Amino acid sequence: MSESIALLPQTWKELQTDVDSALTRYLCLDEDCPAGLREAMSYSVNAGGKRLRPILVLLACEACGGTAEAAMPAACAIEMVHTYSLIHDDLPAMDDDELRRGRPTNHVMFGEAMAILAGDALLTTAFQVMASRVQPAKVAAECCADLAAAAGASGMVGGQVADLDAERRLPETANNGQDHDAQRSVALLQSIHRRKTGTLLTCALTLGARIARADTQTLQLLDHYGRCVGLAFQITDDLLDVLGDATKLGKEVGKDTEHGKLTYPALLGIEQSRAQAAALVDEACRTLAPLVERGRRLEALAHFVLERDF
Ligand code: IPE
Ligand code: IPE
Ligand code: MG
Ligand code: MG
Ligand code: MG
User: Which residues are within 8 A (CB) of 293 and not within 5 positions of it... i.e. 6 or more apart?
Assistant: First the structure.
């Protein structure tokens, strides 16, 4: 486990355990849910994962003076949306991956039709959990609107479309962002990463802050932190596809190159990609300054995003 996470006063593991047991509670489906669908949904949710987005919801809520208990339904809702996005991302029609969270991917286990439907059901269950369990109802409605915007056509789904569209469209002369074409590609890449990964990560911060009834200034501050950490997170994801270890990551490596994906290392090289991720994490931490002590755990989490190897 990374050193920066060990610095979190309440360990990452404890937070993960809390999220895991709440997910099991909230995923309690009635007898009209076909057994096969229940199994496929639980399979991917219970496969673990870092639980970064729910932990961000909890930490943001606490940083704004709220409780983890109040934030837990939103934390689980965003993890359900994220898990659905992974199931669909791995489908043969998308990234065509066979390993996820250390297990065969959902469609490998249950078939493509069930994987698509398990994803659909996780997405809708997420909104059921958010709408019915976040209190008061007005805040629940705001949270549903935030999550829908972040996950939808101009957010994660839009980013996934742009990601697929950009496959095999790497400029032949990618030369450290110096020429006009490369600069345009960096702008395109940033826009893909901002939508496919950044919006959901940023939303995690906003949800936590909303539930704690944070003021507008704090919401904006956390939104900016989320944008920086979100992009840094996807840059490190791109780097780990080149440099990482499949066993530690629980997913295949080298797939971005195989698919000709537009990624940071493909466009800017390893060193420049690392430098950009580090600069974003620095900026994220500077943004937290007004929160003083209340921002410490979010600061540690930003460093984890940079240093992670899983
Ligand atoms: C993987 O997300 C997909 C990206 C947005 C890069 P995570 O790396 O957070 O995956 P899990 O949840 O830990 O499995
Ligand atoms: C996926 O990005 C982002 C999602 C919305 C799921 P990637 O395709 O790079 O994620 P991994 O590398 O498969 O986890
Ligand atoms: Mg993908
Ligand atoms: Mg993928
Ligand atoms: Mg990736």
Answer: none
